[in-house]
Design brief:
The chain has seven helices and 13 strands. The protein has 386 residues and is α+β, with helices and mostly antiparallel strands. It has a nine-stranded mixed beta sheet with strand order 1-11-2-4-3-7-8-9-10. A two-stranded antiparallel ribbon has the order 5-6. Strands 12-13 form a two-stranded antiparallel sheet. The longest helix is centred in the C-terminal third of the chain and has 118 residues. It has three domains: 195 residues, Cytidine Deaminase, domain 2; 61 residues; 48 residues, LysM domain (Membrane-bound Lytic Murein Transglycosylase D, Chain A).
């Protein structure tokens, strides 16, 4: 964070002071109205964050937000007019971490594109995890964004979920903002940054065709052209006739081959018919012998089954009692559920994905453990997974 320190009084500003012009005139509201803060994000910034998140191909990304903060009509107001990629982040076991190279790049880009603006927060782009706040997010925010007016923007483009988080009244944690605004402006600084850091390659201009000459062909040229056309047509006609002859020749060969095959099959069938009659007589004899043997075996089987049933009756009763006891134990274990101990970095969305494969189980876990706020779980807490 030392890379952010400047010679002026504001540790998060770059360059000279920027004139504050008040609230953006063209804006639309997203969500509700927060009583303590108004957050405005410019549309180019919002669009670029979407493109940046999609270009990650399912991986997490981070960015730093630039803009201005001010008091308007007695209310804290945040205007976000820039976004800078967090390049060179460190990937740790519990998530991403800002590195020295990251802050050096951010400082250079601020001086180049967003001179005079402040770092007003950061963005965590986490596909597949929804707009949930994690313990790692709070740790990073308290480490690098210590001003109460600095915000965190969490965005999941796969689930189309987004949310702003800012410091709560005590300043010890983060709370979710009730809503925010998207405003529209020319925003030349952000456009220049987007052009230099675009997610897709620009389209190449179409190749211009050379104009045709206005000179009319002579009579000899027209005759030569007609002769060439006739020759081309004649070659095509000969090629088509040759292709037809080749097809006819191939079909004739195939037909002769099929006739020979059919003749061989007929002779084989005639010879096989006599053998089939002999086999039929042998099968009839075998069937009679098998019926007699089956009757004898049935008698022996009935006698053996009676003895077996007598011997296994008592052991079957014992097995039934063991199965009932085992079923009762399984039912008790099923009703008791699975217990999960909350570790650092866990959140209900992660825990639901761990046990259910998605975040669809968040409400079940909250109901089973009498949790009213999904963001209020602590390390060491025992959660029952229904």
């Amino acid at each position: 964070m030392d890379l952010l320190q400047k010679q002026d009084d504001n540790l998060y500003s770059y360059g000279a002071e920027t004139k504050l012009d008040g609230l953006p005139p063209n804006s639309k509201q997203i969500g509700g109205v927060d009583e303590s803060v108004r957050i405005y994000m410019e549309d180019y910034v919002y669009t670029y964050l979407q493109q940046y998140a999609k270009s990650a191909e399912g991986k997490e990304k981070m960015a730093v937000l630039t803009g201005r903060h001010m008091q308007i009509d007695g209310m804290q107001t945040l205007i976000i007019s820039g976004a800078i990629q967090a390049k060179g982040v460190i990937r740790e076991a519990d998530g991403l971490e800002f590195g020295e190279d990251t802050w050096e790049y951010i400082g250079e880009e601020c001086e180049k594109f967003f001179r005079g603006l402040e770092i007003v927060g950061w963005a965590h782009l986490q596909p597949g995890f929804g707009a949930f706040l994690t313990a790692k997010d709070e740790k990073l925010h308290h480490a690098y964004f210590t001003e109460k007016w600095q915000v965190l923007f969490v965005f999941d483009y796969t689930e189309k979920a987004e949310a702003f988080f800012l410091a709560n009244e005590s300043g010890q944690g983060l709370r979710q903002a009730k809503g925010h605004f998207i405003y529209y402006d020319k925003n030349q600084e952000m456009q220049e940054y987007m052009l230099e850091n675009r997610m897709t390659k620009p389209k190449e201009p179409p190749v211009k065709q050379r104009p045709r000459s206005g000179r009319k062909p002579s009579a000899q040229e027209r005759m030569d052209a007609a002769q060439e056309i006739r020759e081309v047509l004649e070659r095509r006609t000969k090629a088509a006739a040759k292709a037809r002859k080749e097809r006819y020749r191939m079909l004739t060969g195939v037909s002769v081959g099929l006739c020979v095959i059919c003749l061989c099959i007929g002779m084989a069938l005639a010879h096989s018919f006599q053998r089939l009659q002999v086999l039929e007589a042998e099968m009839t004899q075998i069937q009679d012998d098998y019926t007699l043997l089956q009757a004898q075996q049935q008698t022996q089987t009935e006698q053996s089954a009676q003895v077996f049933l007598t011997q296994t009756e008592q052991s079957q009763n014992t097995k039934d009692e063991d199965l009932q006891e085992t079923a009762q134990n399984v039912q008790e274990n099923t009703q008791s559920g699975i217990w999960h101990t909350v570790e650092e970095g866990d959140n209900l969305n992660y825990i639901s994905t761990l046990y259910y494969g998605s975040n669809s189980g968040v409400e079940k876990i909250m109901a089973a453990n009498d949790i009213s706020d999904p963001n209020k779980i602590y390390c060491g807490q025992e959660l029952m997974i229904p």
